Amino acid sequence: MRSLLRVVVALMLAAGFASAAAAQTYPTRPVRMIAPFPAGGLVDVLARAVGEELAKTLGQPVIIENRPGAGGNIGADVVAKADPDGHTLLMTSPGIQSINQFLYRSMPFDAEQAFAPVSLVADMPMLVVVHPKVGAKTLAELIAMARAKPGKLTFGSAGVGTTGHLGLALLMHAAQIDVTHVPYRGAAPSVTDLIAGQIDGVVDNPPTVMPHIRAGTIVPLAVAATERLAVLPDVPTSAEAGLSAWEASSWFGVVAPAGTPRDIVQRLSDELAKAVRQPSMQRFTTQSGARMLATSPEDFDRLIRAERDKWGAIVKAAKISAE
Predict the structure, then answer these.
(1) Residue 237 DSSP class
(2) pTM for the whole structure
(3) DSSP secondary structure string, 130-142?
(4) Beta carbons of 96 and 119 less than 8 angstroms apart
(5) Cα 219 from chain centroid (whole Å)
(6) What is d(CA 240, CA 230) in angstroms, rounded to the nearest whole number?
(7) Are 94 and 252 in contact (CB under 8 A)?
(8) Angle formed by the axes of helices 187-195 and 206-215, nearest 10°
(9) Do residues 225 and 293 make contact, with C-beta atoms less than 8 angstroms apart?
(10) Antiparallel, parallel or unpaired: β 127-130 and 219-223
(11) Is the dihedral of CA 126, 72, 311, 293 positive or negative?
(12) Count of helix runs (H) and strand runs (E) in the chain
């Protein structure tokens, strides 16, 4: 029995030393971070900024590779099938982790099992904005208009199943209103038509609409968050506007393939926390309205699961499909 115990203890110690050695030697080669959306977009820009800071502390280059398509599923699939050694990461978003599985009849990976959450890195609450011709000055006035004439108001989005579309669907559900959804091929065309008065409003992220809010060509009514945006301090939160059930954001974070050793995941999380605190990252807060923040792997996992429950219910209730 003592001999057996000695063997077990030796094996446990060896495993511990091996784990420590792995943590000390990681990374042993450049880290690849997949940006699953086109170059020049917010995910790509954010991945490159985070990757630059992460490379400094990891001591290895962080190479950003764009793999766009299928709402982020193509790039995410690359990471889902990569070796779980911490050398391939994904800059992810709500669609990939919490929404696409409800929109697509088939997925190339199991979103609930394929990834190891590392850390949230940014969060951008959505805004509801309208053309001045609509006449609404508050969210309550917009809701009253929509209830008086169901289906008459038109709201654009970047496309079916995008976060803007889902944010609009949640707004309609929370306020019990009916507006006509007009999908576009991207956020920019929808905002262009909004400025021209071809549609009445959009629900979208701050970077898309802030320049036009500042120019006075569109009117912000509320931000779907519990706190006001620092870049738009005069815009009330949804709760202040009388609709506390409407909370929606585009968040971004880093995940690794499932099975990545815990010590590597934790080190990545720690290094990402350092990265987002750097002064160079704060420009995203002032320029885009994004809130730069970091979380533990456990907190990020809880966020993903909560978002999955929320958006799954909304996709089902609104009968939204990307195919």
Answers:
(1) B
(2) 0.85
(3) E-GGG---SHHHH
(4) no
(5) 24
(6) 16
(7) no
(8) 20
(9) no
(10) antiparallel
(11) negative
(12) 12, 11
